[in-house]
Amino acid sequence: MTPIFLASSSPRRRALLEQAGIPFTLLTPRVSEEVDGEPPPPHQLVERLARRKAAAGARLVDRGLIIGADTIVVFRGRVLGKPADSAAAEEMLHLLQGASHDVFTGLAVIEQPGGRTMTAWERTRVTFRTLTDEEIRLYAATGEPADKAGAYAAQGLGAIFITSIEGCYFNVVGLPLARLAVMLAGFGVHVLALAAGRPAFINKGRLEE
Ligand SMILES: Cc1cn([C@H]2C[C@H](O)[C@@H](COP(=O)(O)OP(=O)(O)OP(=O)(O)O)O2)c(=O)[nH]c1=O
């Protein structure tokens, strides 16, 4: 079987790949998320960063498929990454409240040996209800926004701000699983076939939820 690697230090991505029943090994190469010059459009930016992360992982691996991903929030053309501190988190939440924004995740899968690469991106539209200054302050103080693009976690307490999601929910949390499954199939790895060989794992996952 082709070994699968996830080049990511995001606990959310790890959890989502586990949810899909895909056995994998974690790689945590250090990757800069800086881009030189004029920033490209959001979909190109996330694809480029996902490719950079997967490529950094691929340098550590002789054989297998290496997955990289990158997530950003875009509000009226402005790219919101992870907030530097709680003041930056509050500033982002002030922008996002009472309006819709887009979440973009780029995906890259690199095959080793050979380096055959597939990239893709996914966009999800998320709408926030109106938030009071007090709610924003209290939420920022929980620490949840710290390592999340756009300063919120749809999978966490941030859920109480979201009135609608159009598109892939898993894309918001950092790993669009439907898109990834199609990409892996392009490399001959079929997620359901993996899961079918591991019924005990799946039942265990369900029971624990
Ligand atoms: C919008 C949103 C983002 N996020 C997270 C997913 C990503 O971990 C993070 C975006 O940062 P990324 O730079 O995409 O990822 P990361 O630095 O956490 O991990 P790595 O680069 O090593 O793979 O924001 C949520 O967990 N929930 C949300 O609702």
TrEMBL record:
Its cofactor is a divalent metal cation. The record marks R12, T71, Q155 as: Important for substrate specificity. Pfam families: Maf (PF02545). The chain crosses the membrane at residues 177-197. Keywords: Cytoplasm, Hydrolase, Membrane, Nucleotide metabolism, Transmembrane, Transmembrane helix. InterPro entries: ITPase-like_fam, Maf-like. One of its GO terms (molecular function) is dTTP diphosphatase activity. It is found in: Cytoplasm. It is an enzyme of class 3 (hydrolase). The keyword Transmembrane applies. CDD domains: Maf. Nucleoside triphosphate pyrophosphatase that hydrolyzes dTTP and UTP. May have a dual role in cell division arrest and in preventing the incorporation of modified nucleotides into cellular nucleic acids. Belongs to the Maf family. YhdE subfamily. This is dTTP/UTP pyrophosphatase. It comes from Desulfotomaculum copahuensis.
